Amino acid sequence: MNIAIVGTGYVGLVSGTCFAEMGVTVTCVDVNEEKIKSLQNGKIPIYEPGLDEMVLRNHREGRLNFTTDLSSCLDNVDIVFSAVGTPPDEDGGADLKYVLEVARTVGRHMNKYILLVTKSTVPVGTAKKVKAVIQEELDVRKVNIEFDVASNPEFLKEGAAIKDFMSPDRVVVGVESEKAKELMTRLYRPFLLNNFRVIFTDIPSAEMIKYAANSMLATRISFMNDIANLCELVGADVNMVRKGIGSDTRIGSKFLYPGCGYGGSCFPKDVKALIKTAEQYGYPMQVLRAVEEVNERQKTILFQKLYNYYGGALKGKTIAVWGLAFKAETDDMREASSLITIEKLLKAGCKVRVYDPVAMEECHRRIGDKVEYAVDMYGATLNADALLVVTEWKQFRLPSWGVIQKSMNRSLVIDGRNIYDGRELKNLGFEYFCIGK
Fold first, then answer.
1. What digits encode the pLDDT tens for the residues 320-333?
2. Which of 73, 92, 407, 412 has the most CB atoms at less than 10 Å from its CB?
3. Pick the catalytic residue: 28, 73, 266, 434?
4. How do residues 117-149 score in pLDDT, each as one tens digit?
5. Cα–Cα distances in Å, from 418 out to 101, 143, 304, 436?
6. Within the chain, which residues score under 70 in pLDDT?
7. In whole angstroms, what is the distance from residue 101 CA to residue 92 CA?
8. What CATH number should be reported for the domain whose range is 299-433?
9. What is the pTM for the complete model shown?
10. Is 73 a catalytic residue?
11. Planar angle of CA 88, 14, 330, nearest 5 degrees
12. Minimal CA–CA distance to 256: which of 237, 236, 235, 238?
């Protein structure tokens, strides 16, 4: 089977590479000539464990190709996936201009049946707009060519995207014809030989499933952060509370970890977009509005703990920050808590020294030389008046505390991910603060 995937961002590149790994011939398309040239030369624009080697191998073996011209490959493909960006509009809704441009290009240049599948996260009703745009272009050309549209939202976790794609717990596909259903079944069967977990729905339901899933997970995170903050006030231990409620099979233990707020490319954007979609239908999503409000407040919690500790006297203090990416195993800093924390530290007059295993370049691209970039995690703590842990990278979990204590001005650790044993650190002479204790 031959397919094209438009967009070589996180979703498009991972999806295309994994399809190629299973024997599909894939052409990845992007309007960014520099990015396509880099991919053709074996340079991968994103960090995802294991992706580099898979891209290089499948490109070398001819199953994974890169181009800037979608029209050139339409005669040779059965399915076109649209995996272009849907950034938030000024009003919080999803900007569909790139999605509709893909549809317009397909309509202008297709000469045979094409199934156009939207993989980007888009509001309910987008498929109707996509279908209308294709038909408009066919009408302008005065040709009658059969086509279908479908929705196939992605559920990839950054840092574990290849595993999620190659062994999915479910694949959601919204279709409106048997032909589209048969094509998508053929495409996904190799991934699900042992247990074919494809959920076929109507297209609006598939579009809604992605938003609802991400919003539910975001809700659990904000709920636990609210509970954690209350635990601190009443003297409870949020880790004990989390275990206690997570053992209830109706609740489960996943996404019940408190911290310093969620970020990334999905949760913040999708919560906003779902709220906006509801507003367009005259319905207020009160729970999700609260989820968003709690999360924005939670992103400031590490700074607030530091501010309270020093009684507001932060000017001239050197603060070490471990972790810049919104989560471990990625270099993605979109909506990252670290950005809010750093902004507040700088405004308070602090000198900020940062370290992250893979996101240093991305941080420099975003904020330049406003902070000092340490060579390693220990260099970040040199002469520091506090260490703030923002991202739960594995290499941060068992540091040499003796080395850190000797290098810091003050043995103060504020743990935004609850990865340390507070009693152990206190026995070593550190002052330790975390979330929910």
1. 999 999 999 999 99
2. 412
3. 266
4. 999 989 999 999 999 999 999 999 999 999 999
5. 44, 61, 16, 9
6. 194, 196
7. 20
8. 3.40.50.720
9. 0.89
10. no
11. 70
12. 238
